[in-house]
Amino acid sequence: MGRFEGEAEDREAGAGGAAAEGAVGVGVTKAVEQSYAYCRDVARSRAKNFYYSFVLLRKEQRDAMCAVYAFMRYCDDLSDDLEGTTPETMAQWRRDLERALQGEYRSHPVWPAFHDTVERFRIPRQYFFDMIDGVSSDLSPKPVETFADLYQYCYRVASVVGLTIIHIFGFEDPKALELAEKCGIAFQLTNILRDVQEDAGLGRVYVPAEDLRRFGVDARGIAYTPGFVELMKFEAGRARAYYDEARPLIGMVERGSRASLWALIEIYSRLLQRIEEKQYRVLDAF
Q: Does one domain contain both 247 and 175?
């Protein structure tokens, strides 16, 4: 897995670094406490069902999940604001991230808690730069020609989320990294299937062009045709295979984190199941 080369120094000894019980609050400044409170509010108001999977964790893990969620939520919001966000906006956010990781975090209320989380759980920093690269690509969408192209996009916007999360959950087996990557791919493929019409309206077509051609689907005018249904079945099967490969990850994280990870996977896999049960009518209100 070439993407993980060079992470050992950041990660230390390869183990996913869940913090010691009760660590949050020890030596935490008022600014950091206020930042965690801000992140909890963001997660509570924006994460919806996912927030309830967080409450199954220990407090320091729950707070860390909220901090990471708030960072990633802001990244998503920037990429979705096509009128207000420019490449320079994303470049500035990237510079803010670099400074925050050095302990300079005055530009946004998420940074103190985010920095504390990254340090406390020894999360490789490259994950967050990869995410910014991924969401930045949504500002000027380019055709996705092959599944390899789509995989790279899914890795940047979703697999890095899974990789970040398992550092908070804690793990020992290095294979957990591979499975977390696949779990993120499954999640993002599910998102793409659900949002195919909304994304097309924004000029974003994530389904690989090679697959569109194979099933005779025109990206310029997606309609509910037999070819479209077969295309969706194919992509759903691909997503389902990644879910199946990723499920052993639940048993690889710390015992106290397994219920939360199970809930996250269950929420997304049920969404895929719902798409399948609706006969892929994702062009209707969903």
A: yes
Q: Which range marks the domain in which residue 40 is found?
A: 18-124
Answer yes or no: is 136 within a domain: no
Cα–Cα distance, 17 to 37 (Å, whole number): 23
Average pLDDT, integer, range 116-132: 97
Residue type (1 letter), 100: A
Strand partners, 124: none
Which of the listed residues 60, 93, 124 is the one where a domain comes to its end? 124
* Cα-based angle 36, 39, 42 (whole degrees, multiple of 5): 155
Strand partners, 253: 171
> Each residue of 266-282: pLDDT tens digit?
999 999 999 999 999 99
Helices (H) then strands (E): counts for the chain? 14, 0
Domain-embedded: residue 198: yes
Question: Torsions phi, psi of 104, nearest 5?
Answer: -105, 105
Q: Who's near 266: CB < 8 A, 6+ residues apart?
A: none
Count CA atoms within 13 Å of residue 147 on its CB side: 8
Q: What region, left, alpha or beta, does residue 82 occupy, with left being phi > 0 and alpha being psi -120 to 50 degrees?
A: alpha
Which tokens hold the place of 194? 């659900």
- Give me the chain's average pLDDT, please: 88
pLDDT at residue 73 greater than cutoff 60? yes
